[in-house]
Amino acid sequence: MNPPRIxxxxxxxxxRNWIDILRKINIIKNQVNFLGRMLLNRQETMRRCNPENTxxxxxxxxxxxxxxxxxxxxxxxxxxxxxxxxxxxxxxxPRMYQLLNMAQQYRDRLQEEEQSCNDLMNxxxxxxxxxxTFYDAAKREADTLRRHIDDLEGELQRLERIRQAFAA
Length: 168
Description:
Keywords: Coiled coil. The protein has about 170 residues and is an all-alpha fold.
């Protein structure tokens, strides 16, 4: 992101002329409003791209899905069935083969789910890096805008004092 383009502040006026002072006050107020809207936009970007939000979502997803543990359990079930097949009688073997086949299919589906979860976690990590980049850029721009707004408000106060001196 490029830094924001700030409109120029310098307006040639005669500070002894009351109308020129009012004109410059209005110009500076408009610039402050414009920069304030830009600042709100950057703050919204910072809120939306906060990497902590992505990290919370990633952690919640990781906590809700633990396919590695389930895959391990399916592998143990397959091992148990293999052991049972060697110990059982010949008439129970067809049913045991059927159970073994079902357990292997279940394990394969779980491994696919584990892979898709890992892919999603990798995408979350990439998104977190992007969010951090956008967040940092928006923060730098917001800080720059705050400084410009402060400078303009200082100039505005100075001009208001001059205007009040004219009014007195």
